[in-house]
Amino acid sequence: MAERLADRLVNGRDRGFVGRRTENAVFAELLGRPAGAVVHIHGPGGVGKSTLLHHFARQGAAAGRTTAWPLPRELGDDGYLASLAGTPALLLLLDAADPVVEDPAIISEHLLPALRPDALVVLASRAEPPLEWRTDPAWHGLLHPVRLGHFDRTESGELLRRHGVPDRNHGPVVEATGGHPLALALAADLWRQTGSGLLRLTDSPSVVHGLLARLLETVPSAAHRGALEACAQVLVTTEPLLAELLDVPDARDLFDWLRGLSAVHCGSRGLSPHDLVRRALDAELRWRDPDRRAALNKRAAAYYQQFFDRGDTTRQRSVLTDFAFLHRENQSVAALLAPLLDGTAARRSLQPLGWERLTVLPAAERDLPALYAMTRRHEGVPSADLLTAWSTDPAATTSVVREPGGPPAGYSTTLTLGREAGPAEPADPAAAAARAWLLDGSGGDLREGEKALLVRYWMSAEHYQDASEVQLLITLRLTHDYLVHRPPALTLLPFADPQRWEEACAYVDFARAPAADFTVGGRHFGVFVHDWRRTPPLSWLNLLSPRQSAADPWSVTAPPPPQATRLLSHEEFAAGIRQALRGLGRADGLARADLLRSRLVVTRTAGDDGGNTAATLRRVILGAAAQLEASPLDRRAYRALHHTYLQPAGSQQRAADLLGLPMSTYRRHLAAGLERLTELLWRQESEVG
C-alpha cells in the first residue's frame, strides 16, 4: 500500500529525531510497568521538549497506549476529566504545561484522582517540577523529573549530519551553539548559506537570536530575507501566499528555500517557523521596519479576502482561521483567539484548530438528549426545555461540534426571525425580545421580507461560552456563513456574561443592544447586534483588516457607503418605483428620485457606475424589466410597462391602442406589471451582500 501523506510526516519526524538516549530509556521502562507514573520534562525554550513529547507519543501508540493531548486549561474541567476516567492504558501528554506547574493542585487534586492507576502522564514545561512534588513523600516513586539539556558532542554531530553539515565542520558549530538543539538547526541553515559564519555564544536565547540575526545577514538575497520575514507574519505559508506577500509573480524558489530550513516546519497545509524563530523574526522586523510589517499583514488580509468570492468551502474555512491569526495581538480579541495560539507551532499552525479533528454537522435527533443535558448543566432546565421546543420548529437550525465518532463537544442553534412569529413558535423570551427590538423603529427596523438571525444557543460542553476550540470553531463557522452565503439583515448574538465580551464584540462591529436582552430561568443574557445592511460582509472584512494593524483600532470606523443609505418601508419603496418610472424617459428624470438613497442603489453604485446613482437606478430598473420580458407569464404585463414607461407612447390611451387592448384590460396589465417589477426590485432591496 502506498505511504499516506500523514504517514510521511510521522516517518519524517522519526527520521529527524536524534539523541535523548537517557530520556528514552526512562520512558521505555515506564511504558513496560503495570503501574502509572508522572514524567515531568523541563528545560529552556527551543531545547526540544515538544519534539520529545511527540516521540514519546509515537512510542506509546506503538505499545498500544491511547494517547490524549489536552490543553492546560482543560485539566480543571470536570467534564473533560470524566471523559478520560475510564480509559485504560492512557498516555496523557501535556505540552506548554507552565500554567499547571504554577498551580500544581490541578494535577494532584483534579487530574490524577480522575485517571486509572495504569495511566502514564507526561508534562513539559520550562520550569522544574513544583517544590511540593519533589519534597512530598506521596510523590516518591510516582514523579520522574527529566531535565532536558543541550546535546552532547555526539548527539550534536548526529543532528548536524542529518542536516547535511560535513563532519569536518561539526566542531566550530557545536562550540558556537553549546549543543542547543534549535541553535544547532539554525547553525546548520547558516552553514548551508555561507559555509561558516558562526558566533561564539553560550546563552541559549542569545544563541538563537544571534544565529538568526547572522542568518538574516547572510541569506542569498534581500528576497530570501523578505521570505523569512513574511513567513513569520502568517499562520501558514503557501507558495501562492508567499508570492502575494512579496509581490512577485513566482515564489517557487523562495518557497523551496524556506522549506529546506531546519527551523521551518513543513506540514500538510504549508510552512510555519518554530515558535522562537517566529517571535525573533517578528520582533526584529517590528522595530526595524514597522511599515513593512504592517504592509505584509495588509497583503495577507487582502489575499485571504479574495477566497470569499470562490466556492471552495474547505479552503475558505482554513483561510478564515489564517485571517483570524492576523488579529492575535489585539487585546480586545486575544481571549477569543487563545485556542488558536495554544500549544506548539507545529500543533497550532500546521494542523490548526480542529478543522481536521473537529467537525460541524447538522444535529441529528439522537443528539438531542446530549444537547439537552449540556444546556441544562450550563443554563438550567427552563432553557433546556426551550431547546427541546425549538428542535421541531422550521425556524431553528442546530449544528453539532464533535470529534469523529465522539459525543457532542458543543453546539449552536440559530433562529431565523421575520416580522411575524411562526404558527407554532415556542414562547421564548429570547425570540420575543429580539423581535420587539427588530420591529422598533429606533432599534433593528426589520422590514417586510427581511430576516434576522438570532444565535439562540451556542456553547461548548466543557467550557460553555468561555474561550475554547469549540467556541472559536462555532464563531468562525457562523462568520464563514455570513461571508459566503446570503447573510441575514441583522445578526443578534447573546452572551451570558456580556460585560466580559463587550470590547471584543465592539472590535468586530457587534454593538450592544440592551433592548434585546432577555432572561430565562432567572439567568440574564446580554445581546450584541451587527447590521449587515449597513456594513455588508466585504465592507466588514475591510473594516477588520485596518483595525488589525492600527495603533488605535477604535480610530478605524466602518467604511461609509457611497452616500447615506435610507431603509425604506415596502410602501415607500413601491411609491419610489412609480416615481422613478415616471422620470425614466427624461434625461434628468431620475436626478431627484427617492430611490437614489435606497440600498438597492447605494450598495451597487461605487464599483458599477463610478458613483452615478441615477445611472445605477436606471440599470437595475431596466434589468428587472428584462426579467419580466423573458418570462412568458409576465410578458403581457411587461408590454404594458414598456409602452407606458420604458418607451412611452405619449398617453395611456395611445399605449392601449398600440397593444390592441381595451383601456380596462390595459390598466389591469399595467397594474400587474408595476406589482411584479416592484416585487423583483424589493427582493433585491431586502438582500444583503
Primary descriptors:
eight-stranded mixed beta sheet; five-stranded parallel beta sheet; 689 residues; alpha/beta; 31 helices
Q: Can you give me a brief rundown of this structure?
A:
The chain is an alpha/beta fold.
Descriptive report:
51% of the residues lie in helices and 12% in strands. With 689 residues, the chain is an alpha/beta fold. The strands form three sheets. Strands 8, 9, 10, 11, 12, 13, 14 and 15 form an eight-stranded mixed sheet that branches. A five-stranded parallel sheet has the order 2-3-4-1-5, with helices on one face. Strand 14 (518-520) and strand 15 (523-531) form a beta hairpin. The longest helix has 24 residues, at 663-686. The protein is globular, with a radius of gyration of 31 Å. The two termini are 48 Å apart.
Average pLDDT rating: 81
Q: What is the percentage of strand-forming residues?
A: 5-15%
The helix tally amounts to: 31
Say how many strands there are: 15
Which runs of at least 5 residues are low in confidence (pLDDT < 50)? 199-205, 343-356
Mind telling me the C-alpha Rg? 31 Å
Helix/strand-derived class? Answer: alpha/beta
Topology summary:
Blueprint: H1 5-16, H2 21-31, E1 37-42, H3 49-62, E2 66-68, H4 78-84, E3 90-94, H5 98-102, H6 105-114, E4 120-125, H7 131-135, E5 143-147, H8 153-162, H9 170-177, H10 181-194, H11 204-218, H12 222-233, H13 239-246, H14 252-259, E6 264-266, E7 271-273, H15 275-288, H16 290-305, H17 313-325, H18 334-341, H19 345-350, E8 359-362, H20 368-379, H21 381-390, E9 396-402, E10 408-417, H22 429-439, E11 452-460, H23 469-484, E12 490-495, H24 498-507, E13 511-512, E14 518-520, E15 523-531, H25 537-549, H26 570-583, H27 599-608, H28 613-630, H29 635-646, H30 652-659, H31 663-686
Parallel strand pairs: 1-4, 1-5, 2-3, 3-4, 11-12
Antiparallel strand pairs: 6-7, 8-9, 9-10, 10-11, 12-15, 13-15, 14-15
